[in-house]
Design goal:
- By secondary structure, this protein is of the alpha+beta class.
- The protein is 31% helix and 29% strand.
- The strands form two sheets. It has a five-stranded antiparallel β-sheet with strand order 1-2-3-4-5, sandwiched between helices. A three-stranded antiparallel β-sheet has the order 6-8-7, covered by helices on one side.
- Helix 1 packs across helix 3.
- The relative contact order is 0.15.
């Protein structure tokens, strides 16, 4: 599936679209922000790590038929973050690794505006239209804001795990 085949989803305020090469500077800035990375890996990411992330996002779509979108403000075109469905192969076993994993991350200027809730609802609506029966996600201990987003989207806690020294809650959402 080429970038042209990745669907574009629009909400009242957002456009979820394929990542473009021009997104890389905004992605690098977002992932370098310690506040953004606090609950996702616990450290800022380098430019080369972020570039590898972009390549992984692009590879998801043809392999799985779903992936991550760049999130932009419909009114201004500003890059706000990323969200979508992935298969990261985290080694958490059946029931997690064999399901699409929802994920979302926003640049700090987009925080506190309901953007994650709006965008995640759009991603899950897209998945529902395609008959995806179950979606999982993981949220680090203490990430209260993402837990609220997940709860609004219909995710329920499933089990607690440790991964890379981080305490996480696995959540699930059945259609």
């Amino acid at each position: 599936m080429s970038a042209a085949a990745v669907p574009v989803i629009e909400t009242a305020r957002l456009r979820l679209r394929p990542h473009r090469d021009e997104d890389l500077p905004d992605m690098v800035a977002m992932w370098a922000d310690p506040g953004v990375a606090r609950f996702i890996g616990g450290r800022s990411f380098t430019a080369s790590e972020t570039e590898a992330r972009l390549a992984r996002y692009r590879a998801m779509w043809p392999r799985h038929g779903h992936g991550f979108w760049a999130v932009e403000d419909r009114a201004t075109g500003a890059f706000l973050g990323e969200m979508g469905l992935a298969r990261f192969g985290r080694g958490l076993g059946p029931g997690f690794d064999d399901c699409p994993e929802a994920g979302w991350v926003l640049a700090a200027p987009a925080w506190g505006r309901g953007i994650a809730t709006e965008g995640v609802a759009a991603v899950l609506g897209w998945a529902d239209l395609r008959g995806v029966p179950r979606i999982v996600c993981m949220i680090a201990e203490g990430h209260v804001v993402s837990r609220r987003v997940a709860a609004r989207a219909g995710f329920a806690p499933w089990r607690d795990v440790g991964l890379g020294g981080v305490s996480l809650t696995l959540l699930e959402r059945a259609r």
